[in-house]
Amino acid sequence: MMDANPTPHNNHAAANSNAGVAIAQSTPAVETHGLNYYFGQGDLRKQVLFDLNLTFPRGQIAIITGPSGSGKTTFLSLIGALRTIHDGSLKVMGRELVGMNNAQLVEVRRGIGFIFQAHNLFESLTAVQNVEMAVELLGGFGSKRAQAIAMLEQLGLGHRVTYKPNSLSGGQKQRVAIARALVNQPQLILADEPTAALDKESGRDVVTLMQTLAKEQSCTILMVTHDNRILDVADRIINLVDGRLESDTSMRDFVTAHDPKTLDPRMFML
Amino acid sequence: MSPLRRTPLAWLNLTHDRRRLATSLGGVAFAVLLMFMFNGFKNALYDSQVQLLQLLNADIIITNTQKYNMFVPEAFARRRLYQARAFAGITAAYPLYINNANWKNPETKATRPVRVLAFNPQDPVLLLPDIQAQLDKLREPNTVLIDLKSRPELGSITPGVVTELGERQVRVAGNYSLGTDFASGNGNLVMSDQNYLRFFSNLDPELESRNLGMVDIGLVEVEEGADPDRLARTLSQRLPKDVKVLTKDAFVQQELSYWQDNTNIGFVFTLLTGMAFIVGIILVYQILYTDVADHWAEYATLKAMGYKNIFLLGVVLQEAVILSVLGFIPGFCISVLLYNATANATGLLMQMTVSRALSTLLATFIMCLFSGAIAVRKVQATDPAEVFG
Known about the structure:
The structure holds 2 protein chains of 2 kinds.
Chain A (H helix, E strand, L loop, with lengths): L11 H6 L12 E10 L6 E11 L4 E5 L6 H8 L7 E6 L2 E2 L5 H8 L2 E4 L11 H11 L6 H11 L15 H13 L5 E5 L7 H18 L2 E5 L11 E6 L2 E7 H8 L7 H4 L1
Parallel strand pairs in A: 3-8, 3-9, 6-7, 7-8
Antiparallel strand pairs in A: 1-2, 1-4, 4-5, 9-10
Helix pairs in contact in A: 4-5, 4-6, 6-7
Chain B lengths: L8 H8 L1 H38 L4 E5 L11 E2 L1 H7 L4 E15 L6 E9 L9 H4 L2 H5 L3 E5 L14 E4 L2 E9 L11 E5 H8 L13 E2 L1 E6 L5 H11 L4 E5 H15 L2 H30 L1 H10 L3 H38 L7 H27 L9
Parallel strand pairs in B: 4-8, 5-7
Antiparallel strand pairs in B: 1-10, 1-11, 2-9, 3-4, 3-10, 5-8, 6-7
Helix pairs in contact in B: 1-11, 2-8, 2-9, 2-11, 2-12, 9-12, 11-12
């Protein structure tokens, strides 16, 4: 999982400009200290996240669960640099997001792969063009077609590259969206209910693909989900209730606690 | 599509839904059509006023000082033309006589005022080919050429018709094609200066009799290579102050300015054009806003991926520009057809010139950019964090 080209620890500029360049492998992918977050202002100000202290090492697949309104999606959007934060500390790939301005946040987002509940593909673009939109973000105009096709082939959509989303099934559309999120080889993937709109089988396929690709590219996945059928892909399960950390279980403990007889064989490979 | 280029998102978004594209372009084309028609009517009214003046074969025009538009009947002494001819650089000066008279409709016997233009058939005053070909007929006594585009109230105007002009028998010797304006009454008649004397030198005492000594418009020709502006200034300074000397362009402009400044034509049609412009802005805004609203989640996803606001603004503005250009083409084509139809039906001078087409294109362009600028506020307000959940 560790690759052999460690870059200098403080070389943030390189990390900023290209998500493909690995930062020092020792820094965790995501690190929070005393993270608080509030919605609204003045009298209407309501705290939604309370004093979160979490560290996600690189390569980890973590599932964040919790009842609705527990702040899990808000937590994910903070890590995704989609909101400005004022309180506590949140480091993504070693970069402190607290106090960043909008332009800096946009720069951080470019190194993150986002997967949403809805596929959010442009109906007017073909599968490959939708994926190319992500490649263009980092300027790969010459190689974008090849990169996008390679990514779609990895997701088993090699025969569907010129199809528009209308002609694809739900699972295929979500796989195109995953291709779009992964094509720039981000170090961090944030997924919000990626299987919610899919049937059991396609949901399973999609998650397995994410898992395989994440392992190949050694990237970190944080996934918010209610879907119990996919919990087994996680290395770690975090439960948030009312904006507070309720439990933080490693996969081993979780499986032991829930059903010691059916140990996931994957556990032994780790 | 070249792989080296950015994905043409604006173009693909617009053209994805063909039916919606057709409706959108229909909307833009309609706004373009409205602007063209209102502008066309305005210009037709202005152009009609000066079409005769523009046909006058002259570099410099001399009129009575008090004649600030074609309605003013003041004439000037013919000797001013002889004086003008004496200046270096001037090759010729011809008189044009103008008088209003009543024409009797040969069928209904009703009389209608017309304008008579008279000149010596030997002088190259009006170079319309139809008139030049029929100069011999003008030399016969009591004959006129009559404009085919005269008002239908004049009745039959085919050659050979005999009726009355100013209570004197007149014979239609031929036709030509010009068009009416506000000062020409129901039409323009052309006759020789000799016939002019026959008709107007001996009128009733209450009417002012005319003679060849008093000229309405003097047409001055300058030598080739001479500067009409400079000569017009010289003549203006050296001739007595009872005449006004203008270059032909300035003379045409004086007439135009009169109609522009002293009538509501400009105001009314500019207002209508402005309203068409605003209708266009609203139409295009609706189109762009719908596009942004329908693709809200996709645009927000682009923002989450790291696209900046400026990129999305670019997409919306590109859509605006594409709509303006694509919508202009059908709007222009239909306008050309309607211009011809209107010209045939009303006799108005509906002219589609390159500069008018380009200025409407520019207006369409600004119209669409304006709508785009309003619609992009929706994109700017898109919050990528809301795509989560």
